[in-house]
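To the team - zinc ion complex, inputs and output below.
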Amino acid sequence: MQFEQGNNLPRVKVTNQSSILQMVYHCGPITRADIAKRLDLTLPTITTNINTMIAAGLVRELDSPEPADRRHGRRSRLLDIVPDARRFIGVEMTGSETAVCLTDYRGRVLDRRAAPAPSRDYEENLDAACSMVRELLDRNGGADGLGFCVPGLVDSETGVLKVRPSYNWYDKPILRDIGRRLDLQCPVTVENNACARAYGASLFQRELLNSAPTFAYLFIHAGIACPLILNTSSAFGSIVGAGEVGHMVMEPNGPQCTCGNHGCLEAISSDRAVIARCMDALARGGAPVLRSLCPVGEEPGMARILQAQRDGDADVCRVVERAVYTLGLAIANIDNFTCPHAMLIEGKLFRSEDNRRQLLEVVHHNVCNVKRTDTDFVFVEPDEFSGARGAAAVAIFHDLQSAAE
Ligand SMILES: [Zn+2]
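Output:
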C-alpha cells in the first residue's frame, strides 16, 4: 500500500509554487486575485511566488488595457507564462518513421526533422532517433526536457516499453537506452504515442476541447488506441490507461490480428488492416481504380486508397466501409462505457468527409438509447509531427510540476 507523503514547510512551498505556475500556464492570462481565489491561497503568498517567477523569466505581466479593479492597482494586471522561457524536445518513434521537434512552452514548433526508419530493429531505430535529437540540439542549443513516445504498452513510471507485438519489441528500457546514447542534463519522459497526443491536445489545443472536463483521444494509425484524460479543468489532467482498445474483438471470425486473436478492432479498422485488405483485393485481380493509381509492386498508401474510394472503386469502398462501420461500433461502445465530454478522432480515413459522416451515423445509431450521447466528436487533422509535439507536451506537463523551484 502507498501512502501520501506528509507535508513540511519547504515541501508546502514547492507544492504552492508548482500549483501557481500550473494555474498561470493552464488558465493564463489570469490575475493574481483569481489565482488566489482558485487555489485558496492568500494574495501575499501569490505575490511572493509570482515575483520569484517573474524574476526567473518564467512568468510575465501583460499590459492589460485597464485594471478591472483600481483598488488593487497593479495586482489586477494579467499574468501569463513566458512562451520562450523554456524549450522542449519531442520524439515519436513508431518503428516505420521517426519525427523529432523542438517546441517552446506553448507547443510552438521551433525546429523539426522526420525520417523513415532505417529498419524494424529497435536498437537501430533508437540510434537514428537519438542522432536526430543530437542534431536538433546542436543546431539550437540545449533543452529543458525531452519527451519520447512510441506505440504499444508503455510503463511511463519506469520508461519501459512493455509490448509492441507487431515489431517484436518486448521489455525495451527506453529511458535507460536514451541515457546511454545521449548526454542529457534535462529530465526525460517516455509515454505511449496516443497518450502523448492526448497530452498535446490538453496543453496546446484547448480550443478543440471547448472546455470539456474529460475527453478521449481515438488515434487510428498502424494500430488503434483511445486514452482518456480526466479533469482537464481542475487538476490539469490525469491520464487513465493507455486505452489499448485496438484489441477489443469486433468480429470473432474476422481477420487475424498481430496479437494472435481474430477480429480485433485494429485487424479491421487500422491503417495497416485497410492497406492489407486492399492489397488482398489487388492480388485477386480486383480494385481496378486503385491499381491504376498505384505503381506495380508498390504498397498503396492511405492517400491512394482514399483517392480510389472517391473515384468509386467498389472493392476499395467495401474495405473502407467495413473499417469505418466497425470503428463506429467500437466508438459507441467506448462512449457507453466511459461517457467522455468530448472525443477527439485522429486518423487518415477521416480526411474524407464521407467517412466522417458515415462514422457519426454508425455511432449515433448504436450508442445506448437510454443515455443519448451528448459527447462532442471532433476530428483532428492527422499531422506527421502531432506525436512528437505530444511527447513535448508530456515533458512540459512534468516540467510544470517542478519548474518553479
Ligand atoms: Zn489483437
